[in-house]
Amino acid sequence: MESKVAIIGGTGVYDLDFLAEKKTITVSTPYGAVSLQTGFYQGIGTAFLARHGQNHSVPPHQINYRANIWALKELGVQQILATAAVGSLRRDLPPGHLVLVDQFIDFTKQRPLTFFEGKNSPVVHTDLTEPYCPQLRRILLEAAPAGCQVQDGGVYVCTEGPRFETPAEISFYAQVGGDVVGMTGVPEVVLAREMGLCYAAIALVTNYGAGLSSQPLTHEEVVECQRANAENLRALLENALPRLKGKAGCQQCRKPDPML
Ligand code: HPA
Question: Which CATH superfamily, name and number, covers 5-243?
Answer without folding.
Answer: Nucleoside phosphorylase domain (3.40.50.1580)
